[in-house]
Task: structure prediction
Amino acid sequence: MEYRRLGKSGLKVSALSYGSWVTFSNQLQTGSALECMNYAYDQGVNFFDNAEAYADGKSEIIMGEALKKAGWPRDSFIVSSKVFFGSNPDRKPNQTGLSRKHVVEACHQALKRLQVDYLDLYFCHRPDPDTPIEETVFTMDSLIRQGKVLYWGTSEWSAQEIMEAYSTARQYGLIPPTMEQPQYNMLERERFEKEYARLYEGIGLGTTIWSPLASGFLTGKYLDGVPEGSRLSLKGYEWLKERHLHEKNRANGERVRRLIPIAEESGLSMAQLAIAWTLKNPNVSTVILGASRLTQLKENMKALEVSAMLTAEVMEKIEGALANKPE
Result:
């Protein structure tokens, strides 16, 4: 395993990590989740990603049960939660957002579900236009000083919003955000490669990227329809299916078809090619994998060892097939 600094912090995160979005509760229960987590841990993965909103809190409960059964030393792994959407299906006004009330209560609830004493990483899952940024930054700083959180960050915030949070923290002598969790893959590049570009050097922003396979679209399995049991076939995720299979995304399907021969020439699966491609970006701190089966996880984990096969020549071929590099 390769370990990378989370931005300019001293925290070392495994280049590949394991997340629970969609899979835990919907596809994996405690036993199968533990099997995947144990395998990942044995391969050197030290970061396990979660959020209050995943399966309305059930994802964190499953991960908490798995962590307890695994019995790993607490200082050997990193666990996260995210706050914004809430975990109650019947969400009332103060059970969502980034107000001091919800951020604090959501943190306590996540600690209980995950069965840990502190969160290593705590993300603001989306920006909250209804809460002053000062309120959120002060609250995160307070949680860190209380020892309930070690590092805080954002997820799917604009560069301007991240800078506002950072500047607010600096203005009042508070702890600024350390990391952002954005979507980044071969088909989703603009924000990560262009919008955030000045933040990597400027404030030392770390990144824990999600959806390196574009919810499986980059594997090629959706080119001829939606296989039964796949992520895009799950009830409640129709919006995800619409996003990837909408007529306007036909160009992405063509990109995938052009990538397949490149993967075959390199002796890689499409999943390995796509994950290895994200690992080549030096601004990626860790790539979150979301496998729903152990066999799938084993295949995807190989992306790190084969990333060296993506030479400058192969990367140039990939760029030609994608034809979507941000200007």
Summary: The chain has one domain: 3-219+274-309. DSSP finds 13 helices and ten strands in the chain. Residues 250-266 form the longest helix (17 residues). Residues 24 and 247 are 30 Å apart (CA to CA).
